[in-house]
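=== Structure Prediction Worksheet ===
Name of assembly: unnamed complex
Input type: mixed (protein and possibly other molecules)
Chain count: two
Listed entries:
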Amino acid sequence: MFTTIASATVLGVEGQPVTVEAHVSQGLPGFSIVGLPDTACREARDRVRAALMSSELKWPERRMTVNLAPSGIRKVGSGLDLAIALALLVADGQLEAAGLEGFGAIGELGLDGTVRPVPGIVPAVDALDASEILVARGDAHLARLVTGATIRAVRSLREVVDALTGEDGWPDFPPPPDPGPVRRLPDLADVRGQSAARRALEIAAAGGHHLLMVGPPGSGKTMLARRLPGLLPPLNDAQSLAATKVHSAAGLALPSSRLIQDPPFRDPHHSITMVALIGGGAPTLRPGEASCATHGVLFLDELGEFPPHVLDALRQPLEQGSIRVARAAASVVLPARFLLVAAMNPCPCGEANRPGYCRCTDRDRARYRRRLSGPLLDRFDLRIDVLRPDTNRLLGGEPGESTAVVAARVLAARKRANRRGVACNAELNGAALEAATPLEDGARNLLDTALRVGSLTARGLTRVRRLALTIADLAGAEAPLSAEHIGMALALRSDPLPRQDAA
Amino acid sequence: MNPSDVGFVTAIASLPGVGPARLATLLDAGVPTAVWEQLVRGGFARDESVTAALGPKAPKLVADWRRAAASLDPVELAQRHETLGIRLLDSDDVDYPEAFRSDIEPPRLLWCKGDPTRVRGRRVAIVGTRRCTRYGHDVARRFGMELAAAGVSVVSGLALGIDAAAHAGALDTGADAGPPVGIVGTGLDVVYPRRNRTLWESVAERGVLFSEAPPGASAEPWRFPARNRLIAALADIVVVVESTDRGGSMYTVDEAITRDVEVRAVPGPITSPTSSGTNRLLADGAAPVLSTAELIGELGLAVPIGSGSDSGDAAYRDPEEQCVLDVLTTGATTFDELAERSTLSLERLGLVVARLQVEGVVVRSGGWYERAR
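=== Predicted Assembly ===
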């Protein structure tokens, strides 16, 4: 007898629908799985056999073949176990085919018949075309987020069989999990002083400009970076779904079992490997940290400590907003549209190259500079130098503006950008940028002089115009851009020229 | 210097660990050819007067020298002088600078590139830290330029920072300016630091370069104090522009004091570590130097017309610009710090700083804003 059940695996961040076909016939007893299963898939043989027997079901002593269609594509993971088991039962006649009409199933089977959750349930269910879907209880809430089909949360194979044969009803849908204590995002008001740094954060959030923070250890760079996601506008529905799919595919916990709403914040340690950062980890070509930061912030602390080839791999996502990972068997496109924030300490002595204080030799500085490629540093529109704050200010200073206040300004500025047809000003280029940034006379003169004395390059000019536009948006000012906007943009732009000793 | 001895004394001076004192011991032990022969054979191990002078390390030194001597060829070394365009002088040579001849510790061997007779007339040494601030750099450069324009020779060590700035200023003058004199611690063919290559060549062309180290000698730390004494020996006045408490310039100051050469210091902000040494010199009694005019007058020369005070200060500044400049007087500052310490809003600050930058009054590099001129 022959039957099929719908299921799915995950490749990258997308689900791959799989049709599980089962065929049982006369002949020498045997059980084979075909359709390019990977090791975990192939091991389903033993798991399904044990599960069936533990559930007091008959293990067919006949010739059984399971095909995972489409047969030419590699199948990965253990999520097909449940579908394989059910398909076998139907093909053997132990279950009615009609009962499983239009059903889909995603779940791993334990040797005792327990149904277990699988990583990547969100993209997997998203790809599934069925009217009723069987999943493990732990996956039920997440599955319900992405499909209109009826979700059946099951504990074990026995439960499924009993429900299908009418012995018992379907188990109740589990209650929503306890969301846990409300995790408040860190507030900007915690930062004392550092007014220019706080403004740089605001500009980065409003315009989507990548930010580089330079300073000695203990100057508050990490603290500032952590407050950036709170300033970004909350994710819209499409972004929410995308971010949730990525997190699910990466195997990250989604404890509240609802769609992600806050912009993600990822801060990988500098010992991270390229595959862990960019993605492509076998066997599912798993998304990396850069993808998990999509629609959020990727924070690289100690930029100079990252291996150069790892940083170099970030160029594609920074330019295109996505990462193409190609392997021999398959290739995927992983989303990677994030706001990049990096912190660095420009020299080992801790004085951040301060003239007269810095004790580093030329060789120390050159060695540090060599690790950071020009093209990478060029990606940062904004640069802010932070020093260790004054103790008086730390203890007695008044708190700055709160996240809520600043986030409101950021949101308003973003709306203005939307009216220009882009999500944020960082996306403006070429003719569109020129059209959007008319200059007042004072502003034009300032730029002309800066270009003439050589303190501004042509590329820097584009950068300054973009920044000035965001600054104007935040101030609620109408075109044209004033000299003040240009002045602040000049001060906050990242200049690629490192400090040279006067020779 | 007997031309046939050039190769041998160069070889002797090229042995490891041979500084002025040990060189003297070896050169006093006989004629150069004989001394070299002994070194090749390690014969000095049995010579009591030499071993006594070398001290407890004598046996090891003699052994090391014997090993090193095997790979040194006096003939090739003599030839190298021609190819490199350098001369070896000793006190017998007529062109050996008089100031060295009458010094308490004159160099036994002096290599030079350029014209050694250019060491005549008034000479002012300008020394200071390698890690100078913009202020120190600008002062050193201006002093170098003004002194050279008045016909004074600027003497310095061609190190990074103050030394290089002083000579850069001295070279930035007309053809009849005072010739620059550079004294370096490496061999004259070893440009250290490499970044100063053009400066070396320009000083050798317009003035003269001296070294007590043989060609090929690399930048070993002990060579620099030795070189600093030569700077003090040649100078009529030593000017320290910027220095930390224990910089190499302080050694030059000690050597100057020993030789009764006047030491002057340029005052700086008390908050700046690179002025702590110079300010301390002032507190200990050195006279401050506020302009080159006083130095030139003291040397008995005429002050060229037109060398007035910096015009930048005299220009009117609006209150906002002045506020920023005031904050910058204490030293290099970040934009964030400027925002905290000035009374301006961020928008106004950005504009004011940008204007000051295009004017050249303020420079920004690597995130640090400094006052120029």
